[in-house]
Amino acid sequence: xxxxxxxxxxxxxxxxxxxxxxxxxxxGDPNIQNVVxxxxxxxxxxxxGQQGSGDATNSFTARFESNxxxxxxxxxxxxxxxxxxxxxxxxxTVEVSSGIRSGFASEMAQFLEFIRxxxxxxxxxxxxQMQSGSRFTGALFALLRGAYNDPTTSEMTKNEILLFLRRFxxxxxxxxxxxxxxxxxxxxxxxxxxxWSQQLTDVxxxxxxxxxxGDREGSLKLLREQVFPLVSRYVxxxxxxxxxxxLLSAMTLDVARYENGNEAAMLxxxxxxxxxxxxxxxxxxxxxxxxxxxxxxxxxxKAAKSNAFAERMAMATHRALSGEAGVDMQEAFHHIMNSVLxxxxxxxxxxxxxxxxxxxxxxxxxxxWVDPDAERSSRRPQSxxxxxxxxxxxxxxxxxxxxxxxxxxxxxxxSMLVTCPKSVAEHSPKITQSLRDILAHNGLKVEQVQVVExxxxxxxxxxxxxxxxxxxxxxxxx
Length: 478
Description:
By secondary structure, the chain is α+β, with helices and mostly antiparallel strands. About 50% of the residues lie in helices and about 10% in strands.
């Protein structure tokens, strides 16, 4: 199974001295080392298959036997995101000169101005994040989701639904994929020497013109017939298995997605679904421009076009990881990027939203974890009255501290648990009553509200045990 987190770990003890201490053989002379214990499975190099198997989430040893366990470990590490992000924001409010270049400083100044929030701005920002984070929303995708979950739907039809969704996802990512292709080709020109680099520079100019003209087929032809053969010949002739070959491998995925996101093929897949009674037949009778207009009315399209937060975040991260922000800031942004990329794992069943803000001059960073399938899945936590919907909010507030807010909704009403710094917990009666009043004012039936001192942070996996549902999948590393 592909691991988008780059879960391939180095072989443990690869760089360690070659001296090996062999434990006593079971039930025999410790000097005899060729005894096999039939009650346990070991690797050929003597390593056990499980590392830190007592608690996967608490083990910080690199796990080489399972992609899923690597995902669980990185999910745990991602829980430091509010603290790390707040430290980044705080670092921009003081005079910092150690290794930070003017470009990054200017980018972060614009970012700090962008996250200046009031009540209305925060509501709009949160709504935009939710819409741009879920591209499969709206009436059309609700019909597709219902058809896919219907036990009477044939496997062939389900495959057609998945094919359309893959094409739609790649089609909506066209601008991002094109930017990746241009950037990777440009990096290749720097990785290749002499005449090789000059040839590729000429191709890059043609590729830029083709993409600017919206010629997807022409761009694919340049990539297939010129970029790939040129770099492949260079690698074959020079046996250079370094950066150039790695960039070519990275480009392969983007080219496949670029081809899969072909507009005509995506619309044809939608027409086939309309012809199979999964969707209203009227869709099949629409022209291509009309079909595209239907798709572009989805909330995702509107939000993605106006998601300035993602653009500013990407630019700041690019500058930081390029070395413009100094060593400490570069490390912090590396942690932030790992936390963001974990959302793209095939094992992630939750929606994750980030909310940085400057509220009345006080910096804060929040993140929200939501289970989008809480109402539909029988495997989710349930009470006597039906399914339980949960939202976990983690935040870190400048000069105040870390908070966890767990909101649980079921038929009996809404329950809320707030764990907070000691200085805040001292005012828990007043805060509890205020939260009750807010919930009641919004028409929610209140079951219970607790405000207590935080002794340990809530983990995502304990609040959402369904994180472990996909553990039984194919997740072994080779």
